[in-house]
Amino acid sequence: MIGSAHRALRPLGWDEDWETTLASVDPAAIPGRVLLHHGVGLVVALPGSVASIMLTQRLHPAPAVGDWIAVVDDEAVAVLPRRSLLRRRNAHGDGEQQLAANIDVVLLVCGLDRPVKDGRIQRGTAIAHDAGARPVVVLTKASRDAEGIADAAAAAAEVRQAHPGIEVVITSVKEGEGLEDLRRIIGDRTVTLLGESGAGKSSIVNALLGSEVAATGDVREGDAKGRHTTTSRELHLLPEGGVLIDTPGIRAVGLVTDTDAVAETFTDVDELAETCRFADCQHAGQPGCAIAAALDAGEITSDRLEAWRGLRDEAAGSSASRPRWTPPPTRARRRA
Ligand SMILES: Nc1nc2c(ncn2[C@@H]2O[C@H](COP(=O)(O)OP(=O)(O)OP(=O)(O)O)[C@@H](O)[C@H]2O)c(=O)[nH]1
Ligand SMILES: [Mg+2]
Ligand SMILES: [Zn+2]
Q1: The domain that contains 45 carries what CATH number?
Q2: 330 touches ligand 1 (CB under 6 Å)
Q3: What pLDDT shows up at residue 220?
Q4: Same domain for 208 and 289?
Q5: pLDDT tens track for 13-53
Q6: For 207-229, b where at least 16 C-beta lie within 10 A, e where not — what string?
Q7: pTM (2 decimals)?
Q8: Which of 54, 60, 130, 140, by CA, is between 20 and 30 Å from 272?
Q9: In 3-state terms, what secondary structure has residue 23?
Q10: Measured in angstroms, how far is the CA atom of residue 214 from the centroid of ligand 2?
């Protein structure tokens, strides 16, 4: 049961299971949710207050935005075991970058003022599945009369066709279009926004918050590239409930995942592969290949097949056999 002392954290997602987890990690600690990580410290929502907490000791795993941490004497002593972690390959390609913890939904934000790229949606979908979160595509800037804006309905139809099974929402913050859909998707869940700089992530945060909390910036004339206005990941509590994590724009989403997440992204291709005559079919001219047959029949496109192969190989080559999460040491164990 949630003790009355922690009830104030309920809107941020605190529940009975977290309460049990905290008790098993450190019964003397109070819980806090990481709102912001700024290098040397954290901004944390505690029951009834928001506090800055210096990271005086090294925690394993390192806390990420969205994490629940155990706090004792204004010190972060442990990261509670995560329910999910959104992560990608880091820029150097030699490790992973934690994007956000304990998330339920990933909004893949694409501006209609530039081409919607299938590869980005597939990669975003794969890392969402890797985290056990639901991907949703959000097409922004759907204002009908604006110049250089693709026809929103046509673009959405294309995305739905190219990515079967993924919900697509059309938004325009100026007109308030799509915000009700987003509120329904968010509910009381923890949701993160992912997309290129200038895609309109912070604008969605502001529209849902009903105030200009997050800074937004112009995009460049010509190619609609953003200016990397948002520089850190930050968690916001919505007025009607639900939690929204804004992130800085990212150019590339490298996978650190296993092939399962790719299979969930390409369920159509994956289900076909299951019906090939040979279990070890390489789908490269082997007899009885269901994928070759579907290609011939025009049921899948060669682009989609190539994307599936590429991401599957990338995932197979990544170090996904590592455990996803290492239990935090309890205070007693650490001091022993
Ligand atoms: N017309 C119109 N413009 C929008 C909409 N959403 C965002 N914009 C504009 O797009 C530009 C970029 O928006 P931001 O919200 O800052 O984009 P971002 O994805 O947060 O960008 P980074 O923080 O750099 O990653 C701003 O000039 C916004 O005003 C929309 O729905 N309609
Ligand atoms: Mg932003
Ligand atoms: Zn085959």
Answers
A1: 2.30.30.140
A2: no
A3: 79
A4: no
A5: 999 999 999 999 999 999 999 999 987 899 999 999 999 99
A6: bbeeeeebebeebeeeebbbeeb
A7: 0.87
A8: 130
A9: helix
A10: 7
